[in-house]
Amino acid sequence: MTQGGDVGNWTAADVGDQSRRIAVITGATSGLGLETARVLAKHGATVVLAGRDTARTAAAAAAIRAAQPPGAVETAVLDLASLQSVRAAAADLTARFPVLDLLINNAGVMMPPYSRTKDGFELQFGINHLGHFALTGLLMGSLLAKPGSRIVTVSSNAHRAGRMNFADLQSAGHYQKFAAYGRSKLANLMFTYELQRRLAAARAQTIALGAHPGTARTDLTRHLSGLSQRAMSPRLGLLNSWWVQDGSMGALPTLRAATDPDAIGGTYYGPDGPLQLTGYPVVVSSSVRSHNREAQRRLWAESEQLTGVTYPV
Predict the structure, then answer these.
(1) 279 vs 2, 150, 276, CA distance in Å?
(2) Where does residue 280 fall: left (phi above 0), alpha (psi -120 to 50 degrees), or beta otherwise?
(3) Can you count the helices (H) and strands (E) in the chain?
(4) The CA-based dihedral angle spanning residues 97, 98, 102, 106, taken in that order and rounded to the nearest 10 degrees
């Protein structure tokens, strides 16, 4: 289901001049994050690739620079599985970029075996939601300092299967990897909607938006079964093109949320094809559960308590 009545297909060619914009992108060493950074730099933005593996981050930055984009490429060390690293990264970024135009919360893990972050959180909930909740809060001062700044958080179609079990957010009682992934992606949207409401109430000139890539071929699928990965192969394009697309298409909803001058806070972008699996980016709907305001507020309070990060809005 789509909304908005788009005329024509929005592509990377529709990204306008991004010069003088500074964008921090998490998980930008490969896949959707790298593609997002590449396009923004091509259009003149200063992009900051934030990742935990310094060698991979440096290689990604070098790959973008090799194309000689007009924008600059910087790097930052960030491990979303460690609140200590998140705080250190935020301090570094704030010192280097006291004013930020764009934060793209893109990094994530999908359906790994059960494990925990350095702070004891279930890995998917800890990285996909809590790490980004903490990072966004710690960078909020730099974002609020720039009128028109944006926070884009990448969710997934899997949020529709998510249930916010407040009695066991860390899956300590029972771990089912798809259920935990769906919960973390539902949390991404609930966070976005609650953040936008708080920004609007504070009359801030910063907006929060969500995006999802549909089904895209990226490194994120590495924990899927061999059969699932083979089914997504581009060699089967004649059979699977209706439900899986490449990373350049998958990055378009994020890019539109980040750059479309007509974007409105609280908007969710995704592909326009059947079931939002593939296609060009448009405003899309999200699950009824994602719009539960009581649950959004409770998730916010739980996230503040777990991370120790509070927001100035």
Answers:
(1) 11, 24, 7
(2) beta
(3) 11, 9
(4) 60
Give backbone dihedrals phi and psi of 117, rounded to 5 degrees, phi first: -75, 175
CA 142 and chain centroid, separation = 18
* Ranges of H-type helices in the chain: 31-42, 54-66, 83-96, 123-124, 132-144, 177-201, 226-231, 237-240, 247-250, 252-259, 293-307
Question: Residue 161 has which token pair?
Answer: 């299967």
pLDDT tens across 160-215, in order?
A: 999 999 999 999 989 999 999 999 999 999 999 999 999 999 999 999 999 999 99
Residue 181 annotated in active site: yes
Residue 282 three-state SS: strand
- At 8, is the pLDDT very low, low, confident or very high (cuts 50, 70, 90)? confident
Torsion angle of the four alpha carbons 289, 293, 297, 303, in this order, in degrees rounded to the nearest 10: 30
Task: Give me the catalytic one of 181, 193, 268, 311.
Answer: 181
Domains of the chain: 11-306 (3.40.50.720)
Q: What does the alpha-carbon distance between residue 250 and residue 60 come to, in Å, rounded to a whole number?
A: 18
